[in-house]
């Protein structure tokens, strides 16, 4: 038992002493200049990529081009993403996942029709600006006849397609604006 106590005290003293400094003042010097003379606080040489490759950690470094609509590192086409948010900006947002490409709105009741409400789920399916790169699901509820709650109702046919077309038109406008700004 005494050996165990001596061993424990020895370990505690060893850890205690290792935590103490040597008393010698040293200055840490990190490289701040690239071979070309440009400042780099991380000391990388030349055109070495950042952490985990060219785009940085998880591709968030913004290494894409604006032509493909994926310049900001999100997992979907940025023009479709921004257009979807612009098109549904009148509705309250419940959830938005730019990496998975899903936007879910909360229930919205228009002032001119207080007895019905709508909800949307928008899926951005591709990293390219394509007509089949967006899918919209629309849900509608109407107030129950007794006024006690909401019941599911049929959505007017073509509503989802109209919303998809509005998103695509806005996405094309955003792309044209971006291309014009680059020239």
From TrEMBL:
Protein name according to UniProt: DUF3576 domain-containing protein
Originating organism: Candidatus Phaeomarinibacter ectocarpi
Keywords per UniProt: Signal
Keyword Signal: yes
One Pfam entry name: DUF3576
Tree of life domain: Bacteria
Signal peptide positions on this chain: 1-19
InterPro entries: DUF3576 (IPR021959)
């Amino acid at each position: 038992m005494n050996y165990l106590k001596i061993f424990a005290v020895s370990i505690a003293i060893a850890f205690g002493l290792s935590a103490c400094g040597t008393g010698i003042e040293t200055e840490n010097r990190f490289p701040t200049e690239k071979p070309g003379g440009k400042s780099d606080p991380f000391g990388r040489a030349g055109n070495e990529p950042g952490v985990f490759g060219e785009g940085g950690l998880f591709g968030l470094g913004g290494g894409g081009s604006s032509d493909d609509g994926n310049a900001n590192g999100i997992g979907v086409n940025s023009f479709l993403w921004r257009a979807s948010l612009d098109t549904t900006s009148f509705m309250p947002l419940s959830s938005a996942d730019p990496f998975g490409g899903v936007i879910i709105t909360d229930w919205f009741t228009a002032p001119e029709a207080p007895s019905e409400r709508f909800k949307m789920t928008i899926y951005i399916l591709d990293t390219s600006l394509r007509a089949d790169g967006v899918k919209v699901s629309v849900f509608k509820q109407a107030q129950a006849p007794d006024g006690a709650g909401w019941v599911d109702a049929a959505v007017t046919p073509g509503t989802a397609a109209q919303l998809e077309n509005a998103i695509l038109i806005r996405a094309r406008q955003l792309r044209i604006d971006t291309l014009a700004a680059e020239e």
